Amino acid sequence: MPADNLIDGRAIAREVHAETESRVATLKSAGVEPGLVFVRVGEDSASKVYVGMKERTAAKLGIRSETTVLPEDTPEAELLKLLAKLNADSSVHGVLVQAPLPRHIDETKVFSTVSPSKDVDGFHPVNVGRLMLGESGGFVPCTPGGVHELLIRSGTPIDGAEVVILGRGNIVGKPMAAILCQKSGRANATVTLCHSRTRNVVEHCRRADIVVAAIGKAEFVKADMVKPGATVIDVGVNRVDDPAAEKGYRLVGDVDFTAVQPIAGKITPNPGGVGPMTIAMLMRNTVRAAVQQTGSGVQ
Ligand code: GUN
Description:
This protein is α/β, with parallel strands linked by helices. The protein has two domains: 31-115, Rossmann fold, CATH 3.40.50.10860; 142-275, Rossmann fold, CATH 3.40.50.720. It contains ten helices and ten strands. Strands 5-4-6-7-10 form a five-stranded parallel β-sheet. A three-stranded parallel β-sheet has the order 2-1-3, sandwiched between helices. Helix 1 packs parallel to helix 10 (274-294). The chain is globular, with a radius of gyration of 19 Å. It starts with 8 loop residues before the first helix and ends in a 5-residue tail after the last helix. 42% of the residues are buried. The structure holds guanine. Guanine (GUN) is lined by residues 96-99, 121, 142-143, 171, 278.
């Protein structure tokens, strides 16, 4: 099995981290310590793992971070009050409320309450709008931003490419489409956004030069859906029952990796592809937030 077609997300994330780390050092020498606050509501086990990984990476890069954990039954108003306090705290440059939130809390309202200037997740309507408009000043959501960076840094041609995105979620699919269709030398793709009501998903995928799978269905993308030589990016993290596994389940992506790898021109492993890039982009966004809020000249 050829292994040389892998897009090594861990290695590319290390490159981005090195750039971020040097910006942090410059900021610190100018008297600014970038600060990031995570807010977690409830005890969702995946969220605990993700926030823990983000905290550790922040510490490694010299970004000060802290996590506020609220109980599952926290009233929405209390969460909004906490966000208002963080918005007003000048030592906090980035605020991230980990999704999913408990059902009684309106996620859209929460994401709209984080100040757009501290919205390192890129979920505030102002940042969503800026992305759609192709404005450079806003924050781009971390996972699709990370996929974009993977494509660029792996030398995948995007300009004029046929891109098929599977999944129309607000966190990945929709912003991914907005990023790749921009009129820009870093984008200029022809984008097709497929979802649960798309007819002939297989046909769409087969003509794609780039497939981005963010559909949340275990091993959905099969070998017969991929054009030989296409680039395949797997954003999925799905639990499948596995009695042989220690926890009784294992995690698989949206791509049937074993079947697709020999056909793809390039493919992300999973884990080790998109995941590390999501965190790298969060750290990069946090440093940008600190630069913008303090007027520091670091770029
Ligand atoms: N849950 C899954 N992905 C994300 C993300 O990128 N940001 C936040 N805040 N929550 C998430």
